[in-house]
Amino acid sequence: MNRLPCSILLLAGGRGQRIGGQDKGLVQWQGQPLIAHALHVARPFTDDLIISCNRNRERYAALADQLVSDGNDDFDGPLAGIRAGLAAARHAHLLVLPCDVPKIDAALIARLLDTAGQHPGRPVMVRQGQQWEPLLCVIPVNQRGVFDNAWANGERSPRNIMLKLNAHACECVDNDPRLVNFNTPDLLD
């Protein structure tokens, strides 16, 4: 089946505060860096894999087609990475995945892309019950200006921007194990 052509952005540019300031994408889980798990699942869906990172660029460069960053040392948050990904994307859609969801699977990525293909022009976000997951989404690249304007006006929530753009939900069950966020040391054990 022909899927919606997309660039894929793996977010690995965070400060890693909850894991002692470590670069979360490079923290080991099951013998591999966290980002390797998402990369393995995402790579078959794109010829434009972008990693947003703010440190360890040489290590990430070997994994990606492109690297982007916040442009400063302040760790501006995921919206900064998303904006950089939208600016660099080579396809009309950008699928966004955080590096710390190593249980994500191809079926969910395919469903996100299929849902985006059915709702052209609108962002698609994963939603578990009533909880939106804004860092698991597909964004039409032609909405880049909306994200840039929101940023210029002080908005820092990707969720808020996408809801204003009438985002469509890609529904998942509550507590879907594929969406477990490995962002604390106890979850990594």
TrEMBL record:
Coiled coil: none
One of the Pfam families matching this protein, by short name: NTP_transf_3
Binding of GTP, residues: L11, A12, G13, K24, D70, D100
Cofactor dependence: Mg(2+)
The MobA-like NTP transferase domain, residue ranges: 9-161
GO BP field: bis(molybdopterin guanine dinucleotide)molybdenum biosynthetic process
InterPro entries per record: MobA-like_NTP_Trfase (IPR025877), Molybde_CF_guanTrfase (IPR013482), Nucleotide-diphossugar_trans (IPR029044)
CDD domains found in the cross-reference section: MobA (cd02503)
Keyword Magnesium: yes
GO cellular component: cytoplasm
The EC number(s) this enzyme carries: 2.7.7.77
Positions contributing to Mg(2+) binding: D100
Keyword GTP-binding: yes
Compartments, record wording: Cytoplasm
Annotated domain remarks: The N-terminal domain determines nucleotide recognition and specific binding, while the C-terminal domain determines the specific binding to the target protein.
Family stated for the protein in its record: Belongs to the MobA family.
Subunit structure comment from the entry: Monomer.
Role noted for this protein: Transfers a GMP moiety from GTP to Mo-molybdopterin (Mo-MPT) cofactor (Moco or molybdenum cofactor) to form Mo-molybdopterin guanine dinucleotide (Mo-MGD) cofactor.
HAMAP family: MobA
Protein known as: Molybdenum cofactor guanylyltransferase
Name of the gene encoding the protein in the UniProt record: mobA
